[in-house]
Amino acid sequence: MKHVLVTGGAGFIGSNLVRMLVNDYGCEVTVLDNMYTGCPENLGQQGIATGVQLVTGTVLDQPLVRKLIQGKDTIFHLAAVNITASMENARADLETNIIGTYNVLEAAHQAGVARVVYASTASVYGNPEYLPVCEEDRVRFLNFYAASKYAGECYAQVFYEQYDLPVTVVRYSNVYGYNQRPENPYAGVVARFINWALHDAPLRIYGDGSQTRDFTFIADACRATVLAALCPQAVGKVYNIATGTETTINELARIVIELTSSKSKVLYEDRRPIDNVHRRVLNVEKARKELGFFPEWTLTRGLQETINWARSLAIDKGISGGLPA
Hints:
Layout: E1 3-7, H1 12-25, E2 28-33, H2 40-43, E3 53-56, H3 62-69, E4 74-77, H4 83-88, H5 90-111, E5 115-121, H6 144-163, E6 167-172, E7 175-176, H7 189-198, E8 203-206, E9 212-213, E10 216-217, H8 218-230, E11 238-241, E12 247-248, H9 249-260, E13 266-269, H10 285-291, H11 299-316
Parallel strand pairs: 1-2, 1-4, 2-3, 4-5, 5-6, 6-11, 7-10, 8-13
Antiparallel strand pairs: 9-12
Helix pairs in contact: 1-8, 3-5, 5-6, 7-9, 7-11, 9-11
């Protein structure tokens, strides 16, 4: 793994993955990002070395995708329309998450790359019947995002079966950490909670807060993603990337308020259409046994690290009290 393309590499997870590939593995990285939710500043933080090539474009540009994949040995395909945006524009979700993924897989096959890692999501499980949910458990699609990401998994599987494309799928669960910016309207709950807490503003919870998630710190998610690319036996397989720990949204709010010494209160609001998964926690035994992935970051430790980053960013920007609301 030396010459790498990361689609969506200027976004939240992608930029952190680029940092790890460059600084820890000495990779030469090309980033393809349409800058819809990504930003060049993400690649300038966290000590990313110079030499990363940033290309502004889209995975829907088939000639561009083919050009960028030429000469690469490893592809990390993270470019996607996320869950919130998919509810606003289902056609964009379909085009980017399915057609864009097909473009990447086809170009990777034609170029003969050594490995493709496709970033999928725990959203494909919907409301699971059993917990913790395993990779082989039934999938249930409660939103366009889950359906399109699973369609990408299916195309990846076909390219593996029909053309021997060495592809691995990772299903992330509620990743949080550096570069997840609260001013982004599609930021996750952790980024929003931290931002509100730093402003002593109310933490808004949709529903009663009893819903649970398996929150995964960005460093663990990126490390697991790299392990998936390096493990020979991971070809053609799917892996849950999570911690195996279930946390209620109420508990998340309590920890954030405590760690920030905030005066924030919790404000409960009606559930939104996307708030239709009550419980989520993943079984990560397959990733442990086959990838050697062991989550290193507890929720409290990961939240404290994220809070420290948010505060440092606010200081750099000359903002008092926290990040922009």
